[in-house]
Design goal:
The protein has 91 residues and is α+β, with helices and mostly antiparallel strands. The protein has one domain: Arc Repressor Mutant, subunit A (Orthogonal Bundle), CATH 1.10.10. 65% of the residues lie in helices and 15% in strands. The protein has a 3-stranded antiparallel β-sheet with strand order 1-3-2. A hairpin with a 2-residue loop joins strand 2 and strand 3. The longest helix is centred in the C-terminal third of the chain and has 18 residues.
């Protein structure tokens, strides 16, 4: 994964929200659909992009697919970016 692809993948509020939910607990796609109130096709596209970039991986558990964050440090990066964004708003 290169930095440009990483930041491009994070440049969407829906994907960041999906990552927040995954970071709390490994969830299945059906759970994310209910939590985010977005249609399955749109959610699937977001998850596919995150998987192709290497941010998440899908793990099959029976008939369900769980989404797992590959590197939890990513959430620290998102938090830091939010703090920087907030600080620059003040200026």
């Amino acid at each position: 994964m290169n930095v440009e692809k990483l930041f491009k993948a994070l440049a969407c509020k829906w994907r960041i929200e999906i990552l927040r939910q995954i970071a709390k607990q490994n969830v299945c796609i059906c759970e994310l659909e209910a939590l985010n109130h977005i249609d399955k096709t749109t959610l699937s596209r977001h998850i596919s992009l995150l998987e192709n970039v290497g941010i998440v991986e899908l793990k099959r558990e029976g008939q369900r697919k769980r989404i797992v964050l590959k590197d939890p440090r990513l959430m620290e990066l998102i938090k830091l970016a939010e703090q920087i964004a907030e600080k620059t708003k003040e200026v």
